[in-house]
Amino acid sequence: MKNTLLFLIAISLISCGTPKTVRVSKKVIKGDWLLNSITYSEKGTYNVNLLNDDSKECFEGSTWQFVPNNNRGVYNINGIGCSAGARNFIFTIKEIDPQTGLYDFLLKPTNEKYKSDTNQGFRLRLAALSDMAMEWEQTVTVSGKPFTITMKFNKQ
């Protein structure tokens, strides 16, 4: 009886743990990244304010650091004419479908700018992740149609 109880407790703890693919993703994402390019699913000129922070031009070339053991990070914007500086955030990777490898990535800024709205966060799709490259997608609605913003990173 005692062994059965211990076995059931062990199984319940394992089943509640973080999926292996998410643990592997956190290991891969750890470190410093450069946001190389941002593209849109539709052609045209758009005035997009990414993460309620700054323009596409300011985000391209920004550096990002991920510390998965505490789910924290920081990105730095340094462009001319941009609101330069470091922005802190917390993040979560959540596996959506183990068969396809799709993930949700939740990024929540923690700087003073966001203190008045502590629930503000941004859900992104972690579309691709390898040892040297990462791709995020965010789909929003523009004029009633889906509009996808793609952000491509390289590990430094």
From TrEMBL:
Superkingdom of the source species: Bacteria
Name this protein carries in UniProt: Lipocalin
Record lineage: Bacteria, Pseudomonadati, Bacteroidota, Flavobacteriia, Flavobacteriales
